[in-house]
Fold this sequence. Notes:
globular
Amino acid sequence: MKGLLIKDAYTMMKETKYFFILAVVMAFFQNDFLFSYIIVYAASLPIAALAYDERAKWDKMAETLPLTVGQIIGSKYIMGYVSVGIAMLLAISGKLLGSSFRAEDMVTMLIVVCIALAVQAFNMPLMFWIGVERGRLLFIALVVGAALAVSSIGQEIMASPVALNINFILFSAVGITIAVNIISFYVSRIAYYKKQR
């Protein structure tokens, strides 16, 4: 597993270099949308690693190595979690640079992290099933659909006269995200296994 993560890190060096430059530049703008964008964009980095693997015919080489399907799939999920975690730390650092960090910002960022990881969870099985090239269009549709859904749910919550418990929303978001990622991992394993046969 460690070797797979190192392989992906080397392949993603160029992509992550631009990602860090983008994150540092966005930190100076102090815009909540841009901070959220950094986090959601980080969840798409495993897709770029998958695209490199497809072009290099990595799947054929992986069959000759003592790797399980779970390790191959799991490395991509771990890469997504680490990328989103780093993006969140960069966003928090950017907020602190602007001296505008509040407790509400942390809650918002945690919810954005949950959304980013949920989008990754829905997207990964598609990428393993139909491939990155064809899956990109579905990924764009998925992100647009998620953005519209979050926007309309957010408007409903804001318009609601009932006071909502932020802790309940946060714990629900974290619980749903964990459940969706566990299901996604097993669906990805099945999709990968069937694609290889």
